Amino acid sequence: MKKVKTQVDLVRPVGAQVTVVSGQNIGIDVDVSLRLQSGYTTEGVKTEIDDLVQKYFDQIAFELNYVSIGQLGRLLFEAQGVIDYESLSLNGQKTSVALGDYGTPVIGTVTLNAI
Asked: Which of 56, 28, 41 lies closest to 112, judged by CA?
């Protein structure tokens, strides 16, 4: 952190005030019921869903100040074997999750239930 502040001080415009703060990890628990194609199991699709969620979190880090429940719902359909989903919740709520100005999402517990 000190190295970053020193570097910013070297390149900032004269007279500009710069504040350097570290991001705060915000754990996001995902709970969803999935309707799967024949032959697929929740255990079988979990790794792919975890990877898709992680890629989304990496993409929005420091870009958005919330995790979109709609975008996560859309991502579920990208996982091979997923036909539909119900009851998607993030951190126990059926809404998007605010991250604040310096929050970055990290995967918490991902619970997949079969319909």
From this structure: 41
